[in-house]
Amino acid sequence: MVKQLFFRNVPLLTVLFLVLIIAMPFQITGYSMTAPFLSLAAVCYWSIFSPTLLPFYGLFFLGLLQDILSNPDTLGLNAGLFLLVRLFLELEKRFFINQGFIVLCLTLGTVTLICFLIKILIVFFLADAPFSINPFILQYIFTLLLMPSLIWVLMYLRSFLTKRNLS
């Protein structure tokens, strides 16, 4: 019973794990501004392959948690992005479901780029002082570089869940 409940919540738990990893305080100058947005990549992946295990309310609260931990000035931004990505990819999942690894990485990279552009526009309109776009570019590059390995881990995890008829 507990094991079944745990396995049913693996998509939400992976997103939570990545939110917490992103928010960890590392002793690297500027890390908080350029930390890879891996939680978005996990939301993209699970929205395509197990949308029923990734409820909207869970994504909303995880997005709020990420906003609170990383940048409380734009509270609700990541929550909104998570919900938009989930809705878009669930509606279009028939195009992504049987694609290969490279196509999946390129698709998720494109979706992530669109989310970063939305994020930049919203921050631009909400900023009361001039800001640099460089941290956003670095964050996207770091996310893009780490995304294939994250997708590979999530594919393995989904395979593990599928073998146990849990997804």
Automatic annotation (TrEMBL):
One of its GO terms (cellular component) is plasma membrane. Keywords: Cell membrane, Cell shape, Membrane, Transmembrane, Transmembrane helix. One of its GO terms (biological process) is regulation of cell shape. The chain crosses the membrane at residues 6-26, 38-62, 101-125, 137-157. Coiled coil: none annotated. The keyword Transport does not apply. It is found in: Cell membrane. It is a multi-pass membrane protein. NCBIfam families: shape_MreD. This is Rod shape-determining protein MreD. It comes from marine metagenome. The lineage of its organism: unclassified sequences, metagenomes, ecological metagenomes.
